[in-house]
Design brief:
The chain is of the alpha/beta class and 244 residues long. The chain has helices at residues 21-28, 67-81, 98-106, 120-127, 156-160, 176-185, 214-221; strands spanning 5-10, 32-35, 53-55, 58-59, 62-63, 83-88, 111-115, 141-145, 166-170, 192-197, 205-210, 227-231.
Length: 244
């Protein structure tokens, strides 16, 4: 009987070449893989052909499995196959619930390992020429989830809107109207904003403008989830940002 082990692996922002070497080696040695919706399927080609590869991804309004069911699958497959890889988009510890799964495995005395991934909250912006910090533009950055567990807009966005930091908002496109109203209430209707869809992939799409104009631009560009929102002066460094 194989020793059970859970390895949480960050798959990066989407481009299959942006996974770490350590993450790739973990995939190659896997006995079973549970992978999420934001994982590029090309990464599964590096796994042994005969092993089970189980899709457990979630999209807004479409949940193949609940988190509780995923936790049960982790335990079931770890005990059955041995070396289970939990493959998650971006970095598993950035709104990826990776630590929750590690904690759950620990209750069953299953050994665990965390392999960091390239977080979309930084890399997707950088690939579009937007640094999260830049001398003279931003001294810090916030990474905020737009939607809380109860489905409401995070109160942290209201706090972040009062700062001069770069604000990176994940899972927020469906709440864009609410987000822009918060920034307008702070007198920031002219703040620069970009929304990047399918970042790092060949079909990525980007909308760039101001808080006041972005709703119309998103409709014009047909931006749809998954997408990352970034607000702040660093957006003005993007070559396509409209110059006065």
């Amino acid at each position: 009987m194989k020793k059970s082990k859970l390895t949480i692996v960050g798959a990066g922002p989407g481009d299959p070449e942006l996974i770490t070497l350590k993450g790739l080696k973990a995939i190659e040695n896997a006995d079973v893989i549970l992978y999420d919706a934001l994982v590029n399927p090309l990464l599964l080609d590096h796994a042994k052909a005969e092993i089970p590869k189980i899709f457990v991804g979630k999209r807004k309004g479409i949940h193949t499995f609940t988190q509780e069911q995923i936790n049960d699958l982790i335990i079931e497959n770890a005990l059955k196959y041995g070396n289970i890889i939990r493959l998650k988009g971006g970095d598993p510890f950035v709104f990826g619930r990776g630590f929750e799964e590690i904690q759950h495995a620990g209750k069953f005395n299953i050994s665990t390992e965390y392999i960091p991934g390239v977080s979309s909250s930084i890399s997707v912006l950088g690939l579009q020429g937007i640094p999260v910090t830049h001398r003279g533009s931003s001294e810090s950055f916030w990474v905020v989830t737009a939607t809380t567990s109860n489905g409401k807009l995070s109160d942290d966005i209201k706090i972040a809107a009062q700062s001069t930091a770069t604000i990176v908002i994940l899972m927020g496109l469906t709440k864009l109207q609410e987000i822009t109203e918060i920034f307008k209430s702070q007198g920031k209707q002219d703040a620069a904003i970009a929304i990047i869809q399918k970042g790092s992939l060949p079909d990525e799409n980007i909308a760039i403008g101001t808080i006041a104009s972005i709703m119309d631009i998103v409709r014009e560009k047909h931006i749809a989830p998954p997408a990352i929102i970034v607000i702040g002066n660093v957006v003005k460094l993007q070559p396509k940002f409209p110059k006065n």
